[in-house]
Amino acid sequence: MSDMLQNFINGRFVPAKGQDRIDIKNPTDGSVVAVSPVSNEEDVNDAFEAAVAASKAWGRTTPAERQNALLALADALRDNKDEIVEAQHRNTGQPRAQISAEEVDAGVDNLRFFAGAARTLEGRAASEYMTDHTSYVRREPVGVVAQVTPWNYPLLMGIWKIGPALAAGNTIVLKPSDTTPESTLVVARLAGEILPPGVFNVVLGDGGTGQLMTRHPAPAMVSITGSVRAGRAVARGAADGLKRAHLELGGKAPAVVFADADLERAAEQLIAFGTFNAGQDCTAVTRILVEDSAHDRLVELLAKYAEAARTGSADDSENDFGPLINERHYADVCQKLENIPSHATVVTGGRPVADTPGFFVEPTVITGLRQDDQLVQEETFGPVLTVQRFSTPEEAVELANDVSYALASSVWTSDHGTAMRVSRELDFGCVWVNTHVVFVAEMPHGGFKNSGYGKDLSIYSVEEYTRVKHVMHSLEA
């Protein structure tokens, strides 16, 4: 019998009161590895009641106290890496080495950054703007926050929310994806040994549970990483309660490749960055825009590296990437590949991986698509890269910007001036030059348009979880 998962509320694991259940399946073979409850209104109320009760005391802790707590949590993640990796591997099918390096190690680093950031928040120095009055500005925690994390990077996306919220002095009710909750529950157990009860709470459930959280009166802020559809629902619910919303949503990242780029290096990295995590990444390379004179050579190189990339149900240490997350998403990606228009050409891939259980799709490179085609305009969230031509930098920018998403992009060229000019014109929250999908805790991440608003990482993300208060003193009293 599969394990029945529990909520984590007020410092301990408790059975959910909601009676509905969700099977958690390993996407490498479809086997049921755990059963998750669907938390109901009573469960959500209990979690927020705990967060509200803990909010005042946690908000009054010193920055040093919050720093020490986050450093202790970082150490706990490091010391329990193997358990976290196995929990997440069961839910996602990601290669263990990927989870270890790109989520646990990165999460530890990010928590240590946020620990330091806890001691950098400060108001502005007192000044006299009116005779016999002194003013200053305070940065305070917003209070209680609701957070919803995605299934593609369950641990790391949780850290991107937990770290800045705790650093700023907030208490949390977090709902992980109903597909991949187990690594978050390990974090909850570890946090329960470090943080006061009620500071960090986890409720399990589906989109309905998320809506209950969004519309609950307790949180002053709601943060979600997820689809555009889910983000819009959260934004509507937050607006009804005049709550602050922080949305990190979809992407359709272009890579603009000029003829003077190192094409061999570009092709190798673009395939790596486009198929990493099976392309299930809002910042993954999905659209390659290449200068006319370099088109054929780059396509040849892309095919070479795509055909060398490994996936499938073999031991995950042999694979570059794992499966798509579940049967529904697998069917959606396969349907898009089956419906490629006749004017396009599949250079390599374009099919499920043959003779394997689970939800695996071959690395795919497609040329000849038009700007209004579905695979160019809509997020695929699979190991699928499209290639389009451009003649001038202006045309490249026009094609790159002509989608509803604006999260991430990259420019590939040996000309510094070209890189600077094109970076300026690209309408995306992040632009990389001669690389792609490289994150550091010190720099902000977030998009525009349908990719949402607000920033993850950096001191900017900590400020997202604060409010600004003006205090004025009369000097005559």
UniProtKB/TrEMBL annotation:
Q: Where is the active site?
A: E248
GO MF annotations in UniProt: oxidoreductase activity, acting on the aldehyde or oxo group of donors, NAD or NADP as acceptor
Highest taxon of source: Bacteria
Going by the UniProt record, its keywords in alphabetical order are: Oxidoreductase
Per the UniProt entry, the Enzyme Commission number(s) are 1.2.1.-
InterPro entries per the UniProt record, alphabetical: Ald_DH/histidinol_DH, Ald_DH_C, Ald_DH_CS_GLU, Ald_DH_N, Aldehyde_DH_dom
| Enzyme kind, highest EC tier | oxidoreductase
**By its UniProt entry, which SUPFAM superfamilies does this protein fall under?**
ALDH-like (SSF53720)
* PROSITE patterns, alphabetized: ALDEHYDE_DEHYDR_GLU (PS00687)
- Region forming the signal peptide: none
Chain ranges of the Aldehyde dehydrogenase domain: 14-471
Among Pfam families, the record links this protein to:
Aldedh (PF00171)
What the record says about family reads: Belongs to the aldehyde dehydrogenase family.
What NCBIfam families does the record point to? PRK13473.1 (NF010000)
Tell me the protein's name. Answer: Aldehyde dehydrogenase
Native species? Kocuria rhizophila (strain ATCC 9341 / DSM 348 / NBRC 103217 / DC2201)
Q: Lineage in the entry? A: Bacteria, Bacillati, Actinomycetota, Actinomycetes, Micrococcales
